[in-house]
Amino acid sequence: MLGALLLTRGAGTTVSALGVVTGIFIHPDGTPVNGFAQFKLSADYVSTAACFAPTVISFPVKSGTLTASVVFNDVLLPSGSMYQITVKERGLQQVWGGRYRLVSGSANLNLLVPN
After folding, report:
1. Cα–Cα dist 62/34, whole Å
2. Handedness of CA 74, 76, 79, 85 (dihedral sign)
3. How sure is the predictor about 27, in pLDDT bands with cuts at 50, 70 and 90?
4. Could you say which of 2.60.40, 3.40.1170, 1.10.3470, 3.90.1150 is the CATH number of the domain covering 17-101?
5. Angle at 14 between CA 45 and CA 78, to 5 degrees
6. Who contacts 12 (Cβ-Cβ below 8 Å, separation ≥6)?
7. Predicted structure pTM score
8. Cα dist. 27→19, 63, 87, 106 in Å?
9. Strand pairing class (65-71; 57-62)
10. What are phi and psi of 85, to 5 degrees?
11. Cα(first)–Cα(last) distance of the chain, in Å?
12. Could you give the CA distance from residue 80 to residue 43 in angstroms, rounded to a whole number?
């Protein structure tokens, strides 16, 4: 799936529980990564709006820049959820990855320490 994870509650009503994840990804030679980032939850979780399974969700990384909208871990139950996040070049070569707990509605992956 490419794009944002959307929450809906009956009759197509969108629930605003998404946070924004950003990051800049540059190869050691200085060229920007062009590919995609994959987010996968560590297990099944629920929020007040929906249920979530650990499905891989992909977002584009263009000219080294990632902007993704996902449900952050601090609104999921039970507590303790994490995302496995990987960034891959178009040829599917993984260039970056880690496990993260995303909280507070916005996260810059360049500033977070993986768990």
Report:
1. 5
2. negative
3. very high
4. 2.60.40
5. 15
6. none
7. 0.82
8. 26, 11, 12, 24
9. antiparallel
10. -115, 125
11. 25
12. 10
CA 61, chain centre distance (Å): 12
Tell me how far apart the alpha carbons of residues 32 and 27 are, in angstroms, rounded to a whole number.
6
CB 84 within 8 A of CB 97: yes
CA–CA separation, 93 and 33 (whole Å): 11
What is the four-CA torsion angle of 72, 62, 25, 18, rounded to 10 degrees? -10
Residue with the bigger pLDDT between 10 and 94: it is 94
Please list the residues that pair with 59 across neighbouring strands. Answer: 37
